[in-house]
Amino acid sequence: MKSSSGIELKGDFFNLLAFLVTSARGCVDEPKLYGPFRLIDGASRLIGILEEAHMADEFLVEVKRKMDEGKYKYLIHEMDDQSKFIQFLDDLTLDFVDKLKANGES
Questions:
Q1: How many other C-beta atoms lie within 10 A of the C-beta of residue 41?
Q2: pLDDT in tens for each of the 106 residues of the chain?
Q3: pTM given for the model
Q4: Distance CA 14, CA 65 (A)
């Protein structure tokens, strides 16, 4: 399936699905906070696919930037302080709440 920009989305979506399935299996044996990390990584990858297809708006591009910057900074590099990663997740959640409010959705 090609997008209007000619990008081959089928392979991108298959790769994302494979990542999600293997991540689910990894979560069984990995530390607790790796699950949220993998979800954020998956969301970032999905936004990347949307960007390539010219379907991501400014909000999504900015959220992806925050995700890509924060997912390693707060989880991997600061494992001793999990509260920073949790705050990072809370901040991303609030970004989406603000966006929904701005769009008049509840």
A1: 19
A2: 455 555 566 788 999 999 999 999 999 999 888 899 999 999 999 999 999 999 999 999 999 999 999 988 887 666 667 888 889 999 999 999 999 999 987 6
A3: 0.82
A4: 23
